[in-house]
What does this fold into?
Amino acid sequence: MTSTTDVLIIGAGIAGLTSAKHLEDQGFSVTLVDKGRGFGGRLSTRRIKGLHFDHGTQYFTAGGDAFKAEVARWKKQGWVRKWFESLTFSDERVDKGSHPRYVPKSTGMTSLPKELAGELKGDLHRGERVKSIAFENALWTATCDSGLTLSAKAVLITSPVPQTLDVFEASKLALSKPDKKTLSSIRYAPSLTVMLTLKKGVFSDLGEGMKFPNACDLNWVGNNTHKYKQNKDNVALTLQASAAFSTKHFDSEEGPILDALLNAITPYAPITREHIAEKQLHKWRYAFAETPVDKTFMTIVLPSLSGASLVLAGDAFGERAKIETSWQSGRDAADALAKQLSANV
It folds into this structure.
């Protein structure tokens, strides 16, 4: 068991990293744990034959003043840059509004959470899945699959809600009826992502990327070669399927998925299997919260555990699934926990 901290944060996506930094800035000690090998959740990048592919989040935007200020800080640090403003649609529409899309300056979306994690002072545990939590003598104890145990005064969980409910069930935590109803109402859409490297000399110019209408099997095609100024002799494309296609074909084999997405892109870039040098498929089971709750975080009331501080945050808590939603959720959850911890002193 590690030393006891003020807050244990489960999940090292943007919400978890943001809340950790915000709590530390207010003087609280934090431990962060994530089941993945890296930080960032869907801010993920894969390297294939020397080329970088963003296979989760493709870019992010900033709408609110608070997040705009944070993005300005990231720009000043040299972590992010504007990628493009005008979003091109497959039906030839172009969103020409002033709406910058941001990406990291480095090679891949995963570089941003790495930079954010580097700002933290507390313990960071990767590759550790929390299987249960328990509250006793005013302290939470989390037990991981490896046997690692982590102790804290309060717990913040930012993982997808279905995974959180699994932890609650394994922990035999009885939720109140209102909380159980709210959490059970949250539904996620999956996402199927195909990464393609085209053979040398095969070039299909899709610009920076292209958005497809809801009725199409494709949702987005991103040109990683343009994005990170990689070797233009080898085009690196990310093909993301629509929510409807991903739901229907989530358990399908790679072959039929690839054929369907190639068929969808043919009118815009006639790519066949013969043009492909390398290909990989990634399946995101909890890609987008389709039915998020209308508040930025949720304090869990446990009738049988008086004084237990347990808060949920993430992209299922807010207007819609996006980086800004996760950031705001993590920040607001951190403020709520700071008040709870200060009141218990």
About this structure: The longest strand covers residues 276-289. The chain has a mean pLDDT of 91.
